[in-house]
Amino acid sequence: LLKEDENKEPPKIISEKIYLNDSLIVDRNQDRIIFKDEKTVKLPQEQSVIHLLKEEDHISDVHRSFQKILLHHQPEFGPFFPAATPVSPDKHQNIEEIQESDESPRTKLYLASLNAKDVFERIRQRFTDMFPFVEDLKTEPMSEPFFMRGVPSVQIRERGVDKWIKEGQISSGMHRTLLHISELYLCTKGTVILVDEFENSLGINCIDELTNVLLAHERELQFIITSHHPYVINNISSSNWKLITRKAGVVTARDAGDFNLGKSRHEAFTRLINLDEYSEGIEA
Fold it and tell me: Is the overall model pTM greater than 0.85, yes or no?
């Protein structure tokens, strides 16, 4: 028996363009692909040219960059982590190897606690600064249940609490905060991190502090975040804003400059929150 959707054709790409320094190097439509002013042989319509031409000069750089994108669609830390696997403590012996590896943030944090103790200490200090009632943070392999044996797990110690608090008992806001702080120190240079609904699961203090931490980071990382929260929006320069709207099945991203929001940050924010596009997000 076949599921109903197995009889459907896979979606096809109908348009694709790639620019290099404002010069169009890939122009694709439903009928042909033009690469550097020359028509290519017929290639599968179900795959992006970034994949199809990944061995070509310039496109290979784009492909490598896309491999560095992290999308947070499920918690990395928390009571459930089905993708987690046991880790050898001998893996990746220094911070450079840890950052350049394809390991998850959970695994990188554990390896940093063993092989890059100074970096782990900075992460631990950042985390405890944001949660003053937390005295300490550690990560070590689990011993049980048996099917999770050897998988790194985070624990915290709170002031006035005798025992270490296990990962499954830590709040989701703390999990999110630890994840983003860990990424600042442990992601490979050039990583693009996509965070949808940034303020979700974060308390008021977490939102303020974590926003400040992300804005102050000094490594070559890029964060693309979606948010409706006033503190987040008002503390990011309007030159970096994108306003996302939807009309039927078409999603559009527009620059703040398209809406004449004003030059000062306060004026831009005030005008932004009064736009129908901001409050509704859907165009008739």
Answer: no
